[in-house]
């Protein structure tokens, strides 16, 4: 997740994060490595030695969830070294009032936002993002609402309105973070339990992401699908996609998050599509709505170029596709996307060779960086993905996931080089086009997933300029075959 440093404005269609406007980072020379650093943390190299605490026992904001968990892993004491933050979750987070109550970002172990750097004005490094997707189980209707995150000690630039959700609504909440570890902390002793919030297993957190009620939500979604109440629209077709063997205009299906062609990161779905507005003068944040953008002159747009955002906001427009959308309850029901909607679409139209959360992703690795099947299945369940060994899941076994990003994504990028090179980069300091940005992520993911341990060779070679931005990429499209290898974990 990054911060786009530009005046914010709304556009028609889906998100205002706009796939068509270049986003310059505030300090590109220093932040060009942010994406790679985030990937490194996810791969387990940054947190494999941390002792972590479960969410089981509710805690109050005065006692950080990480206070005891990180005694053996000292935090930096200044904003330049802190990589972990607390996020205070309001009471009854799944209720309408809970959704409208701002979450508060602050430092761990009693550190203030100023001491820790955990403030939304520092969103490039340590911003937190929250997204709710709502199902009316009686009708199958879906909607989206992005709860606001504010820096602790500040007020919202514009007070969020309470969303009109049905009394029987089933809500899921997804969290994303730009640092290493985000610790959900209940505003009341029961807040996390009320939301069925999960951030990993005892002693092993997911790190950047957490969930509230994902399992219950997707159970309800599947029930409504079976009853015919929820009909998921087709992802559509694109006449712009060039198959790896050539033949433009073949009407190929638009990709979903579980397509290896577009699993540009080491995981197929790892973050929210939430956007906020920041008043750079006051540090206050607001929900990204048409009204708020019009009333906040000079506001900065905060958004996350996660895999979901890359697909929904940048790649889909280039391919002539549209993501699965639902009314945004904070923005006059304008259609918008969400991480959960992406997963609903991908589940209904799952590719035969499916990119699901692999065990070799750092988010789901266990202690010492070992593969952890139970933790992986928990993460998958919170996003409605089948468990390890489930239908269509074998293609995401660690060695096969590596093989598939090589044998499927690499030819896709190479065949669509011209189309993607004309697309806008989500983060211009990381890649100067959509092509180089995706190539850079594939190149980095190969190493972070430990694909070399399976006898595979990195299929992407990138060229960087003096600022570290990828400006060119070459692809080796020769198919490779993975082999199980000792030490791959």
Protein described:
The chain is α+β, with helices and mostly antiparallel strands. It has two domains: 2-238 and 252-382, no CATH class; 394-475, no CATH class. It is built from 14 helices and 21 strands. It has a five-stranded antiparallel beta sheet. The protein has a four-stranded antiparallel beta sheet with strand order 1-17-15-16. The two termini are 26 Å apart.
Sum up the structure in keywords.
489 residues; alpha+beta; 2 domains; five-stranded antiparallel sheet; four-stranded antiparallel sheet; disordered N terminus
Q: Indicate the proportion of strand residues.
A: 15-25%
Identify low-pLDDT runs. 1-81
The total strand number stands at 21
What is the terminal separation in angstroms?
26 Å
Adjacency order of strands in the biggest sheet:
5-4-7-12-9
Structural class given helices, strands, pairing? alpha+beta
Could you give a quick summary of the protein structure above?
The protein has 489 residues and is an alpha+beta fold. It is built from 14 helices and 21 strands.
List the helices and strands and how they pair.
Blueprint: E1 2-7, H1 28-31, H2 34-42, E2 84-89, H3 96-100, E3 103-106, H4 113-116, H5 123-126, E4 128-136, E5 141-145, E6 149-151, E7 170-177, E8 181-186, H6 191-194, E9 197-198, E10 200-201, E11 204-205, E12 210-212, H7 214-226, E13 237-238, E14 252-253, E15 275-278, E16 285-287, H8 290-295, E17 300-303, H9 307-319, E18 326-328, E19 334-336, H10 339-348, H11 373-382, H12 398-415, H13 417-421, H14 434-448, E20 460-464, E21 470-475
Parallel strand pairs: 2-8, 3-6
Antiparallel strand pairs: 1-17, 2-3, 4-5, 4-7, 7-12, 9-12, 10-11, 13-14, 15-16, 15-17, 18-19, 20-21
Helix pairs in contact: 2-14, 12-14
């Amino acid at each position: 997740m990054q911060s786009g440093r530009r005046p914010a404005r709304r556009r028609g269609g889906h998100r205002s994060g706009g796939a068509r406007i270049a986003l310059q980072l505030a300090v590109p020379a220093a932040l060009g490595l942010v994406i790679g650093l985030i990937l490194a943390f996810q791969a387990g190299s940054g947190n494999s030695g941390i002792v972590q605490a479960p969410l089981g026992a509710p805690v109050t904001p005065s006692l950080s969830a990480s206070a005891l968990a990180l005694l053996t892993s000292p935090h930096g004491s200044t904003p330049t070294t802190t990589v972990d933050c607390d996020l205070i979750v309001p009471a009854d987070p799944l209720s309408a009032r809970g959704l409208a109550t701002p979450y508060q970002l602050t430092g761990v172990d009693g550190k203030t936002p100023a001491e820790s750097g955990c403030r939304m004005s520092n969103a490039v490094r340590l911003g937190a993002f929250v997204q709710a997707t709502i199902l009316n189980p009686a009708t199958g209707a879906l909607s989206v609402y992005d709860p606001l995150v504010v820096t602790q000690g500040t007020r919202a630039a514009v007070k969020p309105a309470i969303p009109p959700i049905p009394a029987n609504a089933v809500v899921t909440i997804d969290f994303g973070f730009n640092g290493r570890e985000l610790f959900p902390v209940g505003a009341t002793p029961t807040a996390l339990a009320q939301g069925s919030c999960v951030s990993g297993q005892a002693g092993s957190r997911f790190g950047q992401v957490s969930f509230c009620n994902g399992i219950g939500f997707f159970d309800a979604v599947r029930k409504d699908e079976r009853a015919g109440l929820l009909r998921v629209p087709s992802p559509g077709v694109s006449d712009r996609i060039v198959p790896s063997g050539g033949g433009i205009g073949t009407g190929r299906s638009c990709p979903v998050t579980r397509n290896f062609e577009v699993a540009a990161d080491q995981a197929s779905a790892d973050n929210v599509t939430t956007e906020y507005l920041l008043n750079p003068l006051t540090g206050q944040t607001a929900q990204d709505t048409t009204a708020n953008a019009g009333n906040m002159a000079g506001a900065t747009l905060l958004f996350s170029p996660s895999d979901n955002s890359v697909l929904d906001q940048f790649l889909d427009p280039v391919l002539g596709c549209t993501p699965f959308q639902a009314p945004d309850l904070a923005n006059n029901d304008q259609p918008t996307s969400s991480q959960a909607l992406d997963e609903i679409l991908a589940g209904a139209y799952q590719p035969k060779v499916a990119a699901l959360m692999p065990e070799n992703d750092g988010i789901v690795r266990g202690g010492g960086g070992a593969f952890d099947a139970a933790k992986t299945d928990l993460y998958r369940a919170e996003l409605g993905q089948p468990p390890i060994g489930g239908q269509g899941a074998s293609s995401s076994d660690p060695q096969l996931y590596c093989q598939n990003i090589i044998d499927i994504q690499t030819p896709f990028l190479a065949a669509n080089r011209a189309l993607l090179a004309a697309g806008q980069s989500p983060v211009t300091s990381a890649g100067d086009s959509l092509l180089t940005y995706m190539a850079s992520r594939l190149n980095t993911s190969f190493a972070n997933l430990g694909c070399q341990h399976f006898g595979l060779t990195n299929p992407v070679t990138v060229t960087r300029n003096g600022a570290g931005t990828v400006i060119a990429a070459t692809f080796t499209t020769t198919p490779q075959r993975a082999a199980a290898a000792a030490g791959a974990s």
